[in-house]
GNAT family N-acetyltransferase
Amino acid sequence: MSIVKATLNNLGSVAELFDLYRIFYKQKSDIDGAKDFIKERLTSEDSVIFIAFDGGNPVGFVQLYPSFSSVSMKRLWILNDLYVKESVRGKGYGEKLIKQAIKFAKDTKAKGLLLETAADNIDAQKLYEKVGFTKETTYFYFFAI
C-alpha cells in the first residue's frame, strides 16, 4: 500500500476513482467531466488530493479543500471527498487516507480538519471516531440554495 499526493500525472487514476465516488452518491457516470473537474482542481491548486495504491492499482482517494478560520487566523482543511473501491474496503485504505489527511493538516499548521457525513452513515462515523475525529455538538450547520 502506498499513498501519494496526486499530480497531473495521476489524472486518469484520480478521475476514475472520482467517477466511482460520484456514482456511489447516485450520480451518473461522467468520466470526461470527472477528468475536467480534477484537472482544474490540480491545475488551480484548489484542492489537495491523496491517492492510495495497491501495488500499481489506484484503490482510493481523499480530497481536501482549504478554508480559513478568521477567529484563530489559521487555515482549515475540509475533508470533502473520501472513496475506497468496494473490492478493497475493510483493508485499511480509508483509515490510511484519513490519517494522511490529518498529517497533512498538521504539517501545514492548520487549525484542524473538518468533515461532514450523513447521519445514517454509521460505518464512516465509526472510522472517523477511530482516527480521532469528534462529533460536533456545539454548532449547527446551515445550508442555502
In short: The longest strand covers residues 57-69. The longest helix spans residues 93-107.
